[in-house]
Predict the 3D structure of the following.
Amino acid sequence: MPVVMARDLEETASSSEDEEVVSQEDHPCIMWTGGCRRIPVLVFHAEAILTKDNNIRVIGERYHLSYKIVRTDSRLVRSILTAHGFHEVHPSSTDYNLMWTGSHLKPFLLRTLSEAQKVNHFPR
């Protein structure tokens, strides 16, 4: 609960100018972790597929987040990512933030990932 308490403290201590900044940070799809809430973690909401909520979609669009799906057909994953504003890139592209794969990756591919690129931990 320290995150909730810190958020409440920020909201009560902020002025009218700061409220806009706090509202951008406290987005329903971003959970802040680590010391002083500096590490963002994306939280995906399944209901985003049905609601088509633009507030949820803006996260992927604002930060130009992209994904690729390799060697699998994951319609649910594709729908959730698209509902959160991610756009899909070609399977051979190296410009992506998230790769969802249906098989284990070769070690050389894992070594080429940048800090901003993530893969699913449990293929298939």
The mean pLDDT is 79. Residues 49 and 83 are 6 Å apart (CA to CA). Residues 2-13 form the longest helix (12 residues). The helical segments are 2-13, 16-25, 48-51, 54-62, 75-83, 107-111.
